[in-house]
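Just wondering, does anyone understand what follows?

——
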Amino acid sequence: MAADKAGGPADGPTGRQAAFDVADAAVLLLDAHGRIESWPTAAERLLGHRADDTVGRPVGELLAPDDAARLPVLAADSRTRGGWSGLVSARRTGGHRVAVQVQVVPVTDGAGRGHWLVLAADAPAVPGWERSRPVLERIVTESPVGMAIVDTDLRYVWSNTALEQFGGAPAPKRIGRRLGEIQPGLDAEALEAQMRRVLRSGIPVTGYEHSGRVVSDPYHERAQTMSFVRLDDPDGRPLGVCYTVIDVTERYRSRRQMALLDRAGEYIGRTLDVLQTAQDLADVAVPELADLVAVDLLDSVVRGEEPLPGPLSDADMVPLRRGGLRSLRDGAPGAAPETGGLVSYHAWSPPVRCLAGGGSWRAERLDPLAPHWAAEPPGGRHPHRTDLGLHTSMVVPIRARGITMGVATFFRSQGDESFTEDDLRLAEEFVARAAVCMDNARRYTREREAALALQRSLLPQSSPEQDAVRVASAYRPANELGDVGGDWFDVIALSGARVALVVGDVTGHGIDAVATMGRLRTAVQTLAALDLRPEELLAHLDDVVGRVVREEKDSRPGPGTRGSSCLYAVYDPVGRTCTMASAGHPAPAVVAPDRTVAFVELPVGPRLGVGGLPFESFELAVPEGSVLALYTDGLLSGSASGLGGHGGKERLQRALAAPGLTLDGLCAHVIDGLVSTQPQDDVALLLAETRALDEDRCASWDLPADPAIVAEARADAAGQLALWGLEELAFTTELVVSELVTNAIRYATGPIQLRLILGQSLICEVSDGSSTSPYLRHPRTTDEGGRGLFLISQFTERWGTRYTTGGKVLWTEQPLTAAAS
């Protein structure tokens, strides 16, 4: 006979592979159908059967039923390619079973008929082989892992003892029942869906985690992880599902607590608003930890102030401000009060005791008939605990940096589970995190309110009386994350009925920026009183800012006011012109009387404090009724649509071109259309509608440098006052004209001009070609001269000197009320 191709050892019925010792093997020969053709002496020694009793019999009669069914030799197609090897359980004489290691090889004889060559030997000594079934049964029965088998109808057919730790029923009483009947507190529908999925696909499901309440612990939620495996018969037909259960409650709670703390760290403190932070605290805790959370704060904390030391109150009721409220049920504990409202607690209540003592409080079970902690709201009553179903509570004080700012109260109403010590520690941990954020918000609120108050006091409260423009302004501070900035504007009345329009932006935010803004505004007002041209004023202001920068750099590091910007514009209602210069500030827009809008092509100089190139001024004609729009860059970069740069300018053009609006209405329209309610940067807007002085309100005379002309100048001035109906001012005006003209003739050079302007006041100006400025003296009684300017200062409201490119102008102002009186 010749052996067919034989493969290597294959897995046997036991699913194991073993080495085969040919020297000790008994060699059998089977026909193609598995009948024994030869039975040597070695086989008789191995199994005890004699050759007369075995030859001609099917070899399967000598094997255990399970192995006989699985042996490929006895299969319908008994020519298994490559042979087979493994362990089988054979029956000796008397029915005793013995483990035998066999190797089967297909062979053919000279006639080409097929046979099986079988080598059989004692199985190697494998520890536990003969005891495997009892051992496995004991492992399954006594395993601490809960195990059960359900049939294809998902009814129990077997369960081990460990499954009883979860309650429900002992193993015998489970037989024939469904999971939902045994454990009504679990989501049986979801678990059985997993079983059906395994039955359909045959793919095991491992590590499926769920939570619920088991019969053995009905008052606490338990977490379990389950695995499902389908059981099949020898033909591959599903018999049912075997599942295992492991309790992972502690791991589940730890993971949930960590997730809650992570969410608290991510969610709480996103804003610098005290009330919003308190609401975030309530939102985080519901529903993961509690069903209702109320956060109540001291009123001083909400205002950003330090909590007052000493006892909370001598009265029976302690008022607190409701900072946050979140509930699973609409209208729970009195949605009265709403967030931001006041709630009064009895002095004996746990919230007040925690607020005063600084320690936490927990009640596993609340008395449903106990009085409510808070006072009755006006016009109603608090819902009773029996109405709300509240059965357990915790109160945790909100403390940070040694300061108690309020209390957070937690309730549960769903189910029967009470707050535990672990729950209290968890609440204390994330309340402590929220307290730090809340204290930061409180401190920020205090500084922000101080900065806003300072800024409001430094910004102009009203526009000065003048004839040049009508103004409308708006200021919108940055949101709480952006902090208060140094944007500012001003309107300054100048000599000659002119007006200065100023807008600036100090780099930085906070108190320092606001204080620097105040210094700059004061410096601009001082420099404006000198009647400097715009480019000269910015040059002097640059020196001021440079000095401030150096001072701040010496005292503390940081950018200080470096890079601050400013736009200074002077409008003359007589000449109807506007002269302006920019120190790194956006050019203004001009709205013509026909509502067309254009941006001034203004040369922009360096920002204040940077130094470098000189500043340049630009003069343009401005028709009466035009609107000059001066603004800070926040108006463009902080637009509601997020457009900046050129896109922001286009939006500003469209907004300024809106027809049919008053100046105040146009100002509100621009701000509301381009700026969100909480911009990221401060925004300042100044609109100035130009006016013009008619020709009949201005008179001028060119005078020769001749002392004899003084009398003629007095007469011309008196005649003009008569035309204006201001004869009452003739005496003082003649005195002023006489002194100014005489002074110009005596000390000045070049052409002399006298000009009278009738506006909010009577303005008298004398210009000459000299750059020498007169100064006020206090003459002694024996002095023969030097009293001219002294007399002028006594008879006029204001006087001064301004310089021009061709010389200087001495001017005075007299109030018209003197004429009326």
Remarks:
- Residues 2-18, 75-80, 639-645, 781-786 have pLDDT under 50 and may be disordered.
- The radius of gyration is 50 Å.
